[in-house]
Design goal:
five-stranded mixed beta sheet, binds ligand F0G, alpha/beta, Aspartate Aminotransferase, domain 2, 2 domains
Length: about 450
Amino acid sequence: MSNSRRRSWAEPYKIKMVEPLKMTTREERERAIREAGYNTFLLKSEDVYIDLLTDSGTSAMSDRQWAGMMLGDEAYAGSRNFYHLEAAVREIYGYKHLVPTHQGRAAEHILSKILIKPGDVVPGNMYFTTTRLHQELAGGTFVDVIIDEAHDPASEHPFKGDVDLARLREVIDEVGADKIPYVCIATAVNMAGGQPISLANLRAVRALCDSHGIRIIHDATRVAENAYFIKEREPGCADMSIAEIVRALCDLTDGCTMSAKKDALVNIGGFLALNDDDLFDAARNLVVVYEGLHTYGGMAGRDMEAVAIGLHESVHYDHIKARVGQVKYLGEKLQGYGVPIVVPIGSHGVFLDAKAFLPHLDQDVYPAQTLAAELYLDSGLRAMERGNVSAGRDPETGLNRRPRLELVRLTIPRRVYTQAHLDVTAESVAEVFDHRDGIKGLSMVYEPPQLRFFQARFEPLG
Ligand code: F0G
């Protein structure tokens, strides 16, 4: 009998400090979401019970990271913490030069400014909102070269972050290598549902780029999570450590942009890392214009220390297994209720397939935005739209992009919520799913020109 007894699993940490949450009534939530223009980005966090808006900057830091915060060297120039961070980036990622920035998009801004000329083309394995915008603002055009399976929420492909090599070759042949400043490779592709790229595929991308003299820049925001999936799924990688896989991924690229607010377990921070000496020089010259001196780049010394420690923690096997394990727990629970989600279950959140959830709604009445609002109304759960609103308008036609993926992301902050919170979350989604037929869409009544999803406002239809 004892052989078949269930052995439970628990998080590899215990709670040392708590932040009380406010419980709200349905009436209070109706008022709050109306005042927020049915956009979960515009809710006050105080009015939220379980906050699964994002895993960005929402991690619980470890006691070591908090201890590191007390060791901040707040010198304007040459802070000790910068050198700690530089050593951590060199050790864990292997890149030669570090340019600190206040968060990921600042690194994208500087990179785009130094590498992209008007008319250039940047192929990548699916867009990310801020990344593509900075490429466009620099005069470039993003071209999606991710495999087709990534756009299909039901495809069980184990590496939906892989590049379609034939498509990339086509793009290079069409526009010419001199028009491609770099190929942008994300690990644990966010907009695809937190889906990994395989080492084998990245090696092939490297070989193709080498034959044309094209750089690869890595969006390393969730590289440790990607490494976990490689260890689990890629032939020949089961015995590699997470650190070895992270290093192998980085070694295939020429530099990275990083939002330290995710893998690195901090509330603010980021960086650009580059191997090329001349590019580093150019980036260092620009960081002082937009962010701050090149040894702090918009971060406090204490924040750089927390990132340095967090980078080390991010590649611990027990940590990353539990982190991805929590996401899997929620995803499997939702599957048990018959809720349509993106499969395989991704790294940083469970992505609800809003097209399948609300098949009676046209994409231009924003099913994912609508569903996110309904979840909040049901339980005070906050999720994020990742569909037609996030995708924005095509600059040529001015029409909504109507992406194939119309998703609601239930993003799990690292080390913050317990399994009971995830149970409450799953039950709330199931409740809304039971009443899905009566859900009507939204119309957009205010639309900002850029990254509209952050501040757009909506009104209910019908
Ligand atoms: N790249 C990826 C893959 C990201 O997920 C993000 C942020 C960024 C770059 C930009 O970094 O926010 O530090 O400026 N993603 C957050 C999210 C906002 O909720 O997915 P940032």
